[in-house]
Amino acid sequence: MAILTWLHNAYGRDLIDGIRAALPDEDIREWPEAGNPDDIDICIVFRMPPGFLKPFRNLKLMSATGAGIDHYLLDPDFPRGIRMVRVVDHDFAARMADYVLAWTLFHHRDLAHFLAAQARHDWAYKIMRSASDVRVGVMGLGQMGRLAAERLAAIGYDTAAWSRSPHEVPSVTCFHGAGGLDDFLGRTEILVNLLPLTHETRGILGAATFARMPAGGVVISAARGGHLVEADLVAALQAGTLRAATIDAFPTEPLPADSPLWEVPNLYVTPHCSSTASLQTIVDTFTGNVRRFRDGQPLLNEVDTIAGY
């Protein structure tokens, strides 16, 4: 059997060389040089067009190259019977937590006010609220969401979290399910979205959610572009329903140069850079799962392809 790779070119040859070095006994092929498609039983792919996997009739294990897997599962021809894993570890989650903390502090401490004042040469003093007076809410309690919530609570924010199923996180007030969403949003001034993208969460960052938050709230979204309803975000910022937003993932990426979102006041755009797996994380996680799969052991970070996460 053989492994087919189609990897992110940002890592150059280092990524495939790392995989080859860690799996010297495996037949590793690089797309488009796949050879006989019936040989392929393991695949690691960065992006793929719809139907890409159809020729590989003996495929048993599919690996993403990062934490997100929704774009794979949106393929109507994705073989639901195979096992799937993603790439995430503590370093990957820590990078996301860093992003969340940086932008939470940016909005809490109103750094935009001071940057604008500096541009005007204006000594614009402003009294800051204590972190304990600021109510932050994290949507999603996977590996990334949980660590972000823990770190927000650790530096003193009044932190809550919301997820589909019940969780307990020390120093974090946890809500769950449709019945807990209103109470969660009603107490959340700074909303952090780290949800997986599923049919239930698609479009969740829209008018209905913004209206249930306290007036003048903030949204930080570092999950998937499909969560966002762009027109609703712009309308909420223009109306003052939201006072600011930081968005890292958009429905269309890269965000087109002529997109009006670049110019919306109080909207901060980052280029889907909130967290990226290190080369070593990808190599270690993927090759570790290959060994586990060959030995019949439990896999790391296995995805429920029906639930979507």
Describe this structure in words.
- The protein is of the alpha/beta class.
- The protein folds into two domains: 2-89 and 277-295, NAD(P)-binding Rossmann-like Domain (Rossmann fold, 3-Layer(aba) Sandwich), CATH 3.40.50; 90-269, Rossmann fold (3-Layer(aba) Sandwich).
- It has nine helices and twelve strands.
- Helix 1 (14-22) runs parallel beside helix 9 (279-295).
- The protein is elongated and about 65 Å long.
- GO terms for molecular function: NAD binding; oxidoreductase activity.
Question: What distinguishing features does this structure have?
Answer:
309 residues, alpha/beta, Rossmann fold, 2 domains, 5-stranded parallel sheet, 9 helices, 12 strands, 17% strand, elongated
Poorly predicted runs are: none
Query: Mind telling me the C-alpha Rg?
Result: 21 Å
Helix content: 25-40%
What kind of oligomer do you see? single chain
Helices, by number, come to: 9
Distance between the termini: 27 Å
**Largest sheet data:** 7 strands, parallel
CATH class placement of the largest domain: Alpha Beta
N-to-C SSE series? EHEEEHEHHEHEEHEHEHEEH
What best-fitting shape do the alpha-carbon axes yield?
A: elongated
Instruction: Count all strands and give the number.
Output: 12
CATH superfamily of the largest domain: NAD(P)-binding Rossmann-like Domain
* Total discrete domains: 2
